[in-house]
Amino acid sequence: xxxxxxxxxxxxxxxxxxxxxxxxxxxxxxxxxxxxxxxxxxxxxxxxxxxxxxxxxxxxxxxxxxxxxxxxxxxxxxxxxxxxxxxxxxxxxxxxxxxxxxxxxxxxxxxxxxxxxxxxxxxxxxxxxxxxxxxxxxxxxxxxxxxxxxxxxxxxxxxxxxxxxxxxxxxxxxxxxxxxxxxxxxxxxxxxxxxxxxxxxxxxxxxxxxxxxxxxxxxxxxxxxxxxxxxxxxxxxxxxxxxxxxxxxxxxxxxxxxxxxxxxxxxxxxxxxxxxxxxxxxxxxxxxxxxxxxxxxxxxxxxxxxxxxxxxxxxxxxxxxxxxxxxxxxxxxxxxxxxxxxxxxxxxxxxxxxxxxxxxxxxxxxxxxxxxxxxxxxxxxxxxxxxxxxxxxxxxxxxxxxxxxxxxxxxxxxxxxxxxxxxxxxxxxxxxxxxxxxx
Length: 439
Ligand SMILES: [Zn+2]
Fold this sequence. Notes:
single chain; alpha/beta; TIM Barrel; 2 domains; 15 helices; 18 strands; binds zinc ion
């Protein structure tokens, strides 16, 4: 089946960052032509994009879909208290039903807001329910169960034996890599240094050496780094490198307090960084030095983290905030709109290990595409699409969303391909959120 997105302005994010007016032609889930007028026959489905902006779907390279039902229950706390008092008890209480409700609520929010791919850290348990729920919505995800084999204040249900954590992760990786028509991949997810023994981290590093992926948190808050220094004898990112947990197969969320030496390590090893500006501000962690990181050639992606530390999951808001924060720190010329857009598309694709498949509108890539309508009072006039997308567009301006060429959002509403009906998703999520905390 051929699908043509007709007559839009295509923000391609290709190597020349071309913005062209024309058609985008999709066949078999892939982009087959960019910009030329399509020849259509009766079998061709047409999505009219006249006066609209067509761009690659947004990629969020650090999320926790398992935490969505904890939205609004964990405000105004520093990281370690936030984890011990709210997040871990929440995750510990999740069962299959609440995990599904959490993932479905998040997927609905993500798709409606133009996010088409994520790098997600699950919880310790209920990973099958999480991945199955994500897979059925049509979203693309690189996901892994959280690994936790030690730590202060870790609830009993989240604390695992090292070997068991590794075995279960290996089984999940084997089961889900390439599942749901290739939309699901696996990334090992040791939670962070303070919840992982050196043995566990080294075993994950060994898997990365074999070509598998890993996703973890690093250098988020000063108090956390102090403990890492005391207990492991070095800075957080440097410690990971010492264990071999670095390189193009590894994505580190936050890196707010990456030292100069650590930034040099990130650059030389090719480790990916996911910048989570809203989460870093709300938890009082600070502002990651991403202008310096970008200057060093480090791949920096964006992430909205989880609902309890944001409390919204809006790729457009993260992009705008990322640009504004660096301008506030470094002056107005850093992180221009096209570069901010790159963080949320191409760089995200790299951080997921999917740069050959998604992140730009190019022939041969998978058709993960969004159509945005800029004809709104807050985004008129539209002189420059990148500027409009980064500074003016809001997530509700997303009109259509495609993953693998499948239309998951049409005219601002989820289609039946997602299996998501908004009213039902909200009602189940509300019930499950209250049930697991006994309210
Ligand atoms: Zn996180």
